[in-house]
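Minutes, project check-in
Item: structure for the 225-residue chain
Input as provided by the requester:
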Amino acid sequence: MTIPVVIAASIFAIAIVSFSPIDVSAEYDHFSIPEISGSITVSEYSQDYSDEAKIALSVAMAVSENSVENGKAMWGKLDVVQGFLVYKIGLLASDDIFHVVVVDGGNGEALYVSDGVSKNNWKHSKHSDNDSHKKWKDHYSYLTPEEREIKKQQWGEVKDAFFALSLDDRAKMIMHFMSMKVQLESLSDEEKDAKKLEMKLMMEELLPLSVEEKTEKLREYVSSL
């Protein structure tokens, strides 16, 4: 695999970015956002703006999906852009075309929709993440080429299972893993290793299942949160 998992592998891999072989946490910053004007001005820096937002992540995801034909929201976060509180939402559209949509954190207006970036264009552009490719290869270095192809297919099925969830369930899962990623920073190395092993075992159980079984497992996981 020569392109970031944000495009090629699966949405759930993004949701568990802290535990997956690929780190795609900086992908949003590759997009240059033109001048925008939002409804909520943020004057002081904070790590948590959730109390200031007027709409939920699931609403912002719905707005973003309505802004891109056949788009499916796969990731989102509350952020400050040009002094305004917004949601940055990542979507995949047909043929794995990736978009970023900026949604006003107050009134839910779509303030910016990026041009689509295809897998091939991403691979050959400044967005290409060679470190991500190396992590993926290192993580599955023990597999044969045929086995790696099966693994890619399984991750693609996880993407399909994730998209089969409701927007509320997808948003709940995203927020859960974002919170977990922050919590990791306060853990000891031993605790981090234990958490990563827990997620690795969960994924090893999930990957071989059918798409329908994967979807049901994800629903069960969301219900347990």
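Outcome recorded: Residues 5-23+129-224 form one domain.
No further action items on this chain.
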